[in-house]
């Protein structure tokens, strides 16, 4: 932004006193207003400065930024309001990350001369919930971004970033976590308003990385083989980082013949959590018992006689035996995605909906309970593959922190757009046939 | 203006002041009266502030505050030695039906000594305001709000040129005397952008207080005028009146510091 309005940091002319700033030694005074220890990067402290005045015409802003550069400080302009007229003041909030152990005082004193003051930070306001499942009025509504709240002068990272939740501070005021509305209990300390709440926007990866070459977040115009290879690379990286891969699968995975490849991926340990619905599990079992998906032969692609009722017969058998796991014990199901999940102990949540046939005994028909079960499995997830699923993808997107790399594979571009519009802006869309995608992904990973 | 009845160097709050250097009271009086008559002859009408015993620097009325039409913003002095002046300055402005708009406590701004308007032809007036040595940059933002005037904040980097009026002297809609060495890199750019035809004063000229001059119409009343500068100014159509104020320079002020312009209109529209 700065460069766009025509300023360039001065390479000369930073007066000699600025040179003294290189010699930053001593201990940081962490009691200083506006100084917060970063939970995620514990060797840095974050300092927020506010600069107000005639910053542009008087060249105060470039001067202050030059000072920060000269002092070797990493900074970001978190809020910039430029005065419209000659008498309007401009206001800039500067966030800097300074290594622990650096004596900030000389720099802060110098910055103060130019009108940059430490933002006086205040604790977040807390209100006590007076009814189970009901938030106090004015509750802070979360984003899916990493969030911290200031309690008793200390910044606390909020556990489990999830959008559209409240932040509850523990009774001992040491921890804070996101809590969905229905899980609020009377007596919970709920964060109110925006003050004392800090949201860290994720840095978009720079340089050559995952999808840097994609101009748009949704792509139907990119070489698919390359995209699949990149996804495979990311999944490997996530697994190497000790994080989990979550797959959200819709029935089209089975209809397009992708079930076998997905089952192979599960069998080989590439899937750590599976979210799906009644339909996916049903057609997965149907395809492995009858060779059809919704009655269509997966080999011949033709409607089989009486095939339209195959999935009902499958559901009926599962219901007779009591669970999907029981069908495996009984030898009724001998392969497939659900089979591999159960065999490998991969946790799955089948969330029901109003149009489900049966449903399968494993399908959770209480959607609030289903969402809670999904929520329990989210911690530790590093990447999510949304495979030809709209409703389950969006539901999962609602639960995931923005830090989870999310790939949305669908033949319909609208699904990825919708996911982004609902707040999962980290989602990268890949517009392709999911069966072909899984074939190629299995080829890359197996 | 304020008669120098009680003028002396009683303390040291700038590099020019040395309490061991005595002020010749009679000479000071004579120099001051010569300045008064030069101003009057140039067409100025002078109002008087009564001197106060124990406030030797009250004579430097430039620091009394900022004037904009009938609005007066009292100075907030950095040094405790001068802080009692404000009470007397404010009383004068109240007596003369000015609206007083004080600066918030905790900010310092030493009046017109650190803030001078420059109105380039065809452009709205801009208050050029110095900071770091005697005034706070944050006070500039407040002045801008109080008076509705555009402000350019420039950092003063030489303690010998501790007030803006030692380094910058607006002459007309195109010209100003400018001591570039008084400003940092950014301040120089700001002034260069604002003043179409700056007339540079060299550091040695600045240290002779050449920049601390008073402009009345096309007459410039200067404490001293080097030949080089005189030629430039006369070439630009000004006539020059030299008033030696050497006794006052012992306290770090010259012609301009001894006056406060009351016919100032800063606000836009």
Can you characterise this structure?
The complex is a heterodimer of chains A (446) and B (269). By secondary structure, chain A is α/β, with parallel strands linked by helices. Chain A has 3 domains: 3-118, LOR/SDH bifunctional enzyme, conserved domain (Alpha-Beta Plaits, 2-Layer Sandwich); 125-200, Beta Barrel (conserved putative lor/sdh protein from methanococcus maripaludis s2 fold), CATH 2.40.420; 218-445, putative lor/sdh protein like domains (Rossmann fold). Helix content of chain A is 30%, strand content 24%. Chain A contains 14 helices and 22 strands. In chain A, the strands form 4 sheets. An 8-stranded parallel β-sheet of chain A has the order 13-22-21-20-14-15-18-19, sandwiched between helices. A 7-stranded mixed β-sheet of chain A has the order 6-11-9-10-8-7-12, with no helix packed on it. In chain A, strands 1, 2, 3, 4 and 5 form a 5-stranded antiparallel β-sheet that branches. In chain A, α6 packs parallel to α10. Chain A is elongated. Residues 1-41 and 204-216 of chain A have low confidence and may be disordered. By secondary structure, chain B is α/β, with parallel strands linked by helices. Chain B has helices spanning 25-42, 85-95, 137-147, 185-194, 203-207, 227-235, 246-249; strands spanning 65-68, 71-74, 99-100, 115-118, 126-131, 150-155, 168-170, 175-178, 197-200, 214-216, 219-222, 239-242. In chain B, the strands form 4 sheets. In chain B, strands 1-2-3 form a 3-stranded mixed β-sheet, with helices on one face. Chain B has a 3-stranded mixed β-sheet with strand order 4-5-6, sandwiched between helices. A 3-stranded mixed β-sheet of chain B has the order 7-8-9, with no helix packed on it. Chain B starts with 24 loop residues before the first helix and ends in a 20-residue tail after the last helix. The A-B interface holds A 10, 12-15, 52-54, 57-60, 62-63, 86-87, 89, 113-115, 117 and B 124, 126, 131-132, 136-138, 140-141, 144-145, 148-155, 157, 184-187, 189-190, 268.
């Amino acid at each position: 932004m700065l460069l766009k309005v025509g300023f360039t940091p001065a390479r000369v002319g930073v007066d000699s006193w600025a040179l003294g700033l290189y010699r930053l030694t001593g201990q940081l005074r962490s009691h200083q207003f506006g100084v917060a220890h970063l939970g995620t990067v514990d060797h840095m402290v974050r300092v927020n400065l506010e600069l107000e005045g005639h910053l542009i015409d008087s060249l105060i802003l470039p001067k202050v930024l030059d000072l920060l550069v000269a002092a070797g400080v990493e900074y970001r302009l978190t809020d910039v309001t430029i005065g419209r007229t000659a008498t309007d003041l401009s206001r800039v909030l500067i966030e800097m990350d300074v290594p622990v152990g650096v004596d900030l005082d000389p720099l802060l004193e110098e910055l103060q001369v130019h009108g940059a003051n430490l933002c006086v930070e205040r604790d977040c306001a807390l209100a006590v919930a007076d009814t189970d499942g009901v938030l106090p009025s004015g509750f802070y509504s979360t984003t899916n971004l990493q969030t911290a709240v200031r309690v008793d002068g200390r910044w606390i990272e909020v556990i489990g970033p999830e959008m559209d939740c409240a932040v509850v501070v523990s009774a001992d005021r040491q921890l804070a976590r996101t809590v969905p509305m229905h899980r609020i209990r009377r007596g919970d300390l709920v964060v109110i308003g925006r003050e004392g709440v800090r949201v860290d926007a994720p840095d978009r990866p720079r340089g050559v990385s995952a999808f840097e070459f994609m101009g748009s977040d949704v792509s139907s115009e990119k070489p698919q083989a390359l995209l699949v290879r990149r996804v495979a690379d990311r999944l490997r990286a996530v697994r190497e980082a000790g994080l989990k891969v979550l797959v959200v699968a819709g029935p089209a995975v089975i209809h397009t013949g992708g079930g076998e490849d997905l089952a192979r991926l599960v069998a080989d340990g590439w899937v750590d959590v599976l979210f799906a619905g009644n339909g996916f599990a049903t057609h997965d079992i149907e395809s492995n018992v009858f060779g059809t998906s919704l009655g269509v032969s997966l080999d011949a692609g033709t409607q089989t006689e009486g095939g339209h009722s195959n999935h009902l017969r499958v559901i009926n058998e599962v219901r007779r035996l009591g669970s999907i796991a029981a069908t495996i014990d009984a030898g009724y199901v001998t392969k497939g995605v659900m089979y591999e999940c159960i065999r490998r102990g991969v946790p799955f949540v089948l969330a029901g909906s109003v149009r489900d046939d049966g449903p399968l005994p494993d399908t959770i028909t209480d959607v609030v309970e289903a969402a809670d079960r999904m929520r329990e499995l989210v911690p530790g997830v590093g990447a999510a593959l949304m495979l030809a699923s709209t409703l389950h993808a969006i539901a999962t997107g609602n639960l995931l922190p923005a830090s989870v790399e999310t790939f949305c594979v669908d033949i319909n571009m609208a699904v990825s757009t919708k996911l982004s519009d609902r707040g999962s802006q980290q989602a990268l869309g890949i517009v392709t046939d999911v069966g072909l995608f899984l074939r190629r992904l299995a080829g890359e990973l197996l | 203006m304020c008669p120098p009845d009680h003028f002396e160097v009683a303390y040291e709050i700038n590099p020019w002041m040395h309490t061991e250097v005595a002020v010749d009271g009679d000479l000071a009086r004579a120099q001051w009266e010569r300045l008064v008559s030069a101003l009057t002859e140039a067409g100025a009408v002078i109002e008087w502030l009564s001197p106060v015993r124990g406030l030797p620097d009250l004579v430097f009325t430039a620091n009394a505050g900022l004037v904009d039409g009938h609005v007066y913003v009292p100075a907030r002095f950095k040094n405790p030695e001068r802080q009692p002046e404000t009470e007397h300055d404010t009383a004068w402005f109240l007596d003369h039906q000015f609206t007083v708009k004080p600066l918030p406590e905790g900010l310092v701004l030493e009046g017109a000594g650190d803030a001078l308007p420059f109105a380039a032809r065809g452009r709205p007036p801009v208050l050029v305001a110095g900071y770091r040595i005697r005034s706070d940059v944050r006070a500039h933002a407040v002045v801008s709000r109080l008076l509705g005037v555009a402000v350019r904040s420039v950092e003063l980097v030489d303690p010998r040129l501790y007030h803006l009026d030692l380094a910058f002297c607006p002459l007309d809609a195109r010209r100003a005397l400018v001591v570039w060495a008084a400003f940092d890199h950014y301040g120089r750019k700001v002034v260069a952008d604002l003043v179409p035809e700056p007339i540079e004063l060299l550091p040695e000229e600045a240290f002779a207080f050449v920049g601390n001059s008073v402009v009345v119409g096309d007459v410039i009343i200067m404490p001293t005028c080097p030949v080089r500068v005189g030629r430039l100014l006369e070439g630009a159509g000004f006539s020059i009146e030299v008033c030696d104020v050497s006794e006052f320079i012992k306290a770090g002020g010259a012609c301009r510091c001894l006056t406060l312009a009351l016919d100032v209109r800063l606000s836009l529209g």
